Amino acid sequence: MEMRFPEVKAPEPAELETGRLLFAGETTFVKGVVAMDGLPPADRMEICFAGRSNVGKSSLINALTGRKGLARASNTPGRTQEINYFTAGDIYVVDLPGYGFANAPVAVVEKWQRLLKNYLSGRPTLRRVFVLIDARHGAKAVDEEIMSLLDRSAVTFQVIMTKVDKLRGDALEASLAKTRAALAKHPAAFPELILTSSEKGDGIPTLRAIIAGIS
Description:
The protein has helices at 13-24, 57-65, 106-122, 141-153, 169-183, 204-212; strands at residues 27-33, 46-51, 83-88, 91-95, 126-134, 157-162, 194-195.
């Protein structure tokens, strides 16, 4: 029986080179957005990254672009409260606010969640959402809430497992199995997983190639 949601196959050398070139130039911060009317013109393809607070999203974006300080990493969950736009080549790379803020005021959480939902359902140039899941924990209920929103919005999302270097053998397989079981309930889920470690650089060239191949 074929496994559902296998790890993505290794890209061809030409695909890896296309991905490398996309992120080899300067990646520029465009703006941080706190409301839908502040979004830049929808004049190019964009991909975005979504994930729970402390899932390693800022570190992944920094590794992807090769710029350590590009996305702001913080030990305080939910510190980055804006939709942050960057340009890489001829596309937008979008860093969404972290979700699952246990210690933030209710009103602030509701505002972030409303902005997140409006963006995900209302951005015509959004081609794919990458949902980050910490390999140490697997998919949680709050992740599935975002997946359900993406289902309703008919926006394709692909799961990136972060921090895979922190697990080995059976522990990693158990986390992957948990995540695959969650994804099976979501029709908008792309059928392959991307396994990454920002610290080690694992999976980063593959992710670049995948982004470069999205049209």
